[in-house]
Amino acid sequence: MIRIDDPDDPRIAAYRAVRERDVVGRGERFVAEGEVVLRLLLGDSSRHQAESVLIAESRVAGLEPLLGAAGHVPIYVASPAVMDAIVGFHIHRGVLAIGRRAPAEDAAALLARLPPRALVVALVGVSNHDNVGGVFRNAAAFGADAVLLDGASCDPLYRKAIRVSVGASLVTPFARGGSGWELLDALADAGFTTFALSPSGELTLEEARPAARTCVMLGAEGPGLPHALMARATTVRIPMAHGFDSLNVATTSGIALYRLARGA
Amino acid sequence: MIRIDDPDDPRIAAYRAVRERDVVGRGERFVAEGEVVLRLLLGDSSRHQAESVLIAESRVAGLEPLLGAAGHVPIYVASPAVMDAIVGFHIHRGVLAIGRRAPAEDAAALLARLPPRALVVALVGVSNHDNVGGVFRNAAAFGADAVLLDGASCDPLYRKAIRVSVGASLVTPFARGGSGWELLDALADAGFTTFALSPSGELTLEEARPAARTCVMLGAEGPGLPHALMARATTVRIPMAHGFDSLNVATTSGIALYRLARGA
């Protein structure tokens, strides 16, 4: 463990101005926060590498066993005041880490290495960090094999998305980029049946018969999936009460995965 | 419509320091924000009364039909700068309203007036505003008849809870107060079968057979429902992947309501 007393110490430069960097991006690195997320980042199921950890001195004793398993990853320890000065705002939980992304792969490469029976989620235009995080949490809870995101959907390794996912976006494989059309092509090429969720879907979720390889595709709340995209998939609706047919997109993913993981 | 140019105008006193009042409470009044929520507040399905509306001048033209239906409710119009000065922070959507609560009723009184076939949600210790709002949104989407909340759960008419519910907490009847025990007693007295959701539940959600009057009971994320409370109900689990058995409480409500509304 390395004691940090100077907020300008060059060793912890990656932690400076976390919030601003969230907006402009930070290339190959990402920021993880909180004990539960750190445990996943340091664990065997993480697809990404921990580069360093920064914790408040008050958390050291409680995190001892976890930090002992961190191997050669540098652990920086600071007072809460120094930590806040480094980061630029108050870190309630006193636990931060910098991760380094696994090499990116495209949707086709990711789908090619999935098992013959597979369940994946595809997001088109879902730019809200809470929703993307919530979808990953549900994907992990129901054992989905991967998440595909078009280029307009937000980065699952954005700090808030990781936090809302409770770390699931560190463990569930994902590919991000391209258009919804390209995702649909890659899914078809890999033998997936894609169910496009929409309040106007032709089948109810109960009627949808999952295939060996099944994808649940979701659009952003409000606009939903583009009509031209839905015309190329099997559209599926979740029956709702008249006059209030509105579900959050993460909740929708949870209901669809519950049904399709059970039915597969 | 009444033009407001002075942030200290006594007519709009109810809008001052919205954020601080959120914390200390505002008695019989609540704050609603955004066009979708305002539409529900002014609509026939709202259980509560609109007392006044405050909108940015830029929104007047677009909201004309809605505001025309507001009847005798005063509509205050201000510049964005005056509106921000009144409220104390920036209101992105430029639409606020003050509502007056319907008279409170207790769980027993609410349950007594529900139909013979009814589906309700009960929350115990769910103090997170996003989660309570999300539960109400799902309750409305699946046509649940009411939501019961113990006294430790947060007020569904807190501004953020209303917003996250997309206004559902204005239309779905609820009762709040007392302990989880008292809710369970009131449910039993009214002939409800209560399913207590827990990762360690004895039945899977598929196995749970809804009764004519069914209640889904949920605890806070983390602690969950008290064990002694679960001992008095039928406990139900949503099967999840090994190693990541964690769902958000609002998502859990959505999955349970999807299953039980369909199965009832």
Any key phrases for this structure?
alpha/beta; tRNA_m1G_MTases_N (chains A, B); 12 strands; homodimer; transferase (chains A, B); Alpha/beta knot; 7-stranded parallel sheet; RNA methyltransferase activity (chains A, B); methyltransferase (chains A, B)
Q: Brief description of this entry?
A:
Two copies of one chain form a homodimer. Chain A has eleven helices and twelve strands.
Explain what this protein looks like in three dimensions.
2 copies of one chain form a homodimer. Chain A has helices at residues 18-24, 35-42, 60-68, 80-87, 107-112, 129-141, 159-164, 168-171, 180-189, 227-230, 249-263, and strands spanning 2-3, 29-33, 49-56, 75-78, 95-100, 118-124, 146-149, 174-176, 193-197, 203-204, 213-219, 234-237. The first copy, chain A, is an alpha/beta fold. In chain A, the strands form 2 sheets. The first copy, chain A, has a 7-stranded parallel β-sheet with strand order 8-7-6-11-9-12-10, with helices on both faces. Chain A has a 5-stranded mixed β-sheet with strand order 1-4-3-5-2. The longest helix of chain A is centred in the last third of the chain and has 15 residues, at 249-263. The radius of gyration of chain A is 20 Å and the shape is elongated. The termini of chain A are far apart. In chain A, 48% of the residues are buried. The model of chain A has no long low-confidence stretch (mean pLDDT 93). Chains A and B meet through α6 and α11 of A and α6 and α11 of B.
